[in-house]
Amino acid sequence: MDTSVDQKKVRKFLDEATPLIKKAYSFAKRAHADQKRKSGEPYLNHVLATAITLDEWGLDEPTVASGLLHDVVEDTPVTSKELADEFGEDVAFLVDGVTKIGNVKYRGHEKQVENLRKMILAMAEDLRVILIKLADRRHNMKTLEFLPSNKRKRIAIETAEVYAPLAYRLGMQGLSGELEDLAFPHTHPSEYRWLISNLEARYGEREKYLEKIKPEVEKALKEALVGVISVDFRAKRYSSLYKKLLRYEMDIERIHDLVAFRIIVKSVADCYAALGAIHNLWPPMPGRIKDYIAMPKPNGYRSLHTTVISLENRMVEFQIRTEEMHKEAENGIAAHWAYEEAKGGKKYAQRKAISAGHTEIAWVEQLRSWQQDFTDPKEFLDSLKIDFLKDRIFVITPRGDVLDLPHGATPVDFAYHVHSEIGNSCVGAKVNGEMVPLDHSLRSSDVVEIITQKGKKPSPDWLDFVVTSTARAQIRNTLKGTSHSLKVDKPKKIELKIKTTERVGLIRDISDIISRSHVSIQQVNSESRGGVHTLRFLCNTEDKKKISKIILKIKNIKDVKGIDYRFV
Ligand code: MN
Fold first, then answer.
1. What's the CA-to-centroid distance between 237 and ligand 1, angstroms?
2. N or C terminus of the chain with fewer C-beta within 10 Å?
3. 512 in active site
4. Which Pfam families does the UniProt record give (predicted)?
C-alpha cells in the first residue's frame, strides 16, 4: 500500500524508542486501530509521522510521546484523565494543548480570533504544544491532496497565514518554507502551474551552470584553507520565488538566486575566510553582502550572504554558515535542545522542557503583554495580523541595537518599542541624522533617534498613524489616564509658512529650532513658484508663547525671508 511515512525511518524510530515512547506507540495503535486516513492508510501512520518529526527536531521524551498520542483525545474515546494516569501529567497537558488548538477551525472572523488566541495561550504556557501542532500540520499538508477541495483550500490558507509565519518566528525557517511550499499549489493553483511551466527548464539550466563553476569554488576554498563541511546548491522554493516575482513584475530575468550555493563550514572564522575566498575569485555585487552573523535576524537566523558576478558575467548567490547555524536556521528553537543532547550524549536524557520564558524568544514575552492589552477580539486579531503576519523592518538605535518592527512603523512605534516612557515623552525624531515628522515611515537599516521632553503626553493624533499594537495600546492607556474623552485634549495644530531662498540644510536648521522648543513636527512641505521658495511646517502645538519664540528664532536664520502662521 502507498504510505506517506518512510518505513525505514519508522523502524529506526521504534528501535531507538524509550519504554515510555514504546508504550505510547502501542497505546496509539490500539486507540486508532479502526481508523483510516482519507488516503486509505492506517491512522497510526499520521501520528507516527508526527512523532518522528518531533524526534528529528530533537525534542524531549514527553513531547515525542505526545506526538504519538496527540489525536487520541480528539478522535477516540480515550480521555485526558486516562492519559495522565498512563503517561503522566506532562503528556496529558501537552495533548490537551494540541486538542484545544485543533478544536477551533480558521473560518469566520470571530473564530479566527479564538483559534489564534488558544494557540498563543498554549504557547505562552509551553512552546512544545506549538511544536507538536507544527509537526502535525506538516504531515497533514503532505497528505492534503486526499481531502475535498474546500477543506483543502481552508487548511492551506490557514497554514500559509498562521502556521508558516509562526514557524518562522520560532526561527524554524526550514519548516516555515516547507509549509509555505506545501500550501502554495492549493492557495495559488494557477500561479503554481505558471511557475512550473515557465521555470522547470530554467531551474535545470541554472543547476547545470552552478555544477560547472562548483569545482572552482571548491578549489578556491581549499587554497584559502577554509574548513569546509559541504558545498552544494539549492533551488529557491516556489512560494518564495513567487513572492519575489511579484516584486519584480514577474520578470524571471531579474531573479538572480533561483538556485544558490550553500557552503557549510567548521567555524565562524571559516565563514569569513570563505567569503573572502569567494570575493577573491569573483567580484561581489555592491550592497548584496549581508552579515547576519554580526547582526542576526530577529528570529535568530545567522549566515553570510553575498552575490558575485561569476563566469559569463552571471550573478550567483552564496550563503555561508557553520553547521550549528545551519541546524538552527532549519530547526530554530528546537535546535537548542538537540545540542544539549549532543553534549550529554544520551538520547532524551538531557532534553529539557521548553517553557515560554526562554530569553531567546523575546516576542513570546511580547505576546503575553499584548494579550492583556486587548479586550476586543477583533482588535486583538488585527493587532496579531499586523504585528506577526506581515513583513518586518529592522531599524537601529543610536547605541547600535537592532529593533524588529512591522512594515510601515513610524518613529512613534519605535519610541514605544524602546520604552513606554520614551513613547509618551516623544516630541521629535531623527532618522539617519535628519529630522523627520513623527508619522514618517521607517525603513530597514535606518538609524532612529528619538527626541524626548519630560512630562510630555502623547497626542491622540498619533493613533492615526501608528501601526504597532504596543504603541496603540500605550497611547490609549496614557490618554485614558489624563482625560475622559480623547477629543477634549486634542491639541490644535499650527502651520508655519516660511518664505526662503533655496539652500541645502535649511529644512534641517528650521526643524532643529522647532524640536529644540519641544514641539513635534507632523509634516514638512516645500514648494517653489516663480522663484519664491515656501516651506510649510505642520506642528503639534497651540502654545502661543512657544510659537512666538520659535518664529523669532526662525527669522534669524540666514536665507529666511518671511514667516507666517495659522492654526489648523
Ligand atoms: Mn493530527
1. 26
2. N
3. no
4. ACT_4, HD_4, RelA_SpoT, TGS
What nine digits make up the cell of 86? 498512563
Q: Is 74 a catalytic residue?
A: yes
Q: Which of 386, 405, 390 is nearest to 445 (CA)?
A: 405
Grid cell at residue 28: 496509539
Above 70 in pLDDT, residue 539?
Answer: yes
Overall CATH class of domain 491-568: alpha beta
pLDDT digits (tens, 9 = 90+) for 276-297: 999 999 999 888 899 999 887 7
101 Cα to the center of ligand 1, angstroms: 11
Which of 15, 61, 71, 74 is an active site residue? 74
Q: Which of 498, 541, 499 is nearest to 518 (CA)?
A: 541
pLDDT tens digits for range 59-113: 888 999 999 999 999 888 999 999 999 999 989 989 988 887 775 555 544 444 4
pTM above 0.70, yes or no: no
What residues have their beta carbon closer than 5 A to ion ligand 1?
71, 136
CATH number for domain 7-184, candidates 1.25.40.880, 1.10.287.130, 3.30.565.10, 1.10.3210.10: 1.10.3210.10
Three-state secondary-structure class, residue 405: strand
Distance (angstroms) between ligand 1 centre and the Cα of 45 equals 10
CATH of 391-489, one of 3.40.50.1240, 3.10.20.30, 1.20.1270.90, 3.40.50.720: 3.10.20.30
C-alpha cell at 484: 475622559
Percent of the chain whose predicted confidence (pLDDT) is above 90: 37
Take residue 250 and report the three cell numbers written for it. Answer: 514577474
- The overall longest dimension of the chain from CA atoms, in Å, is 89
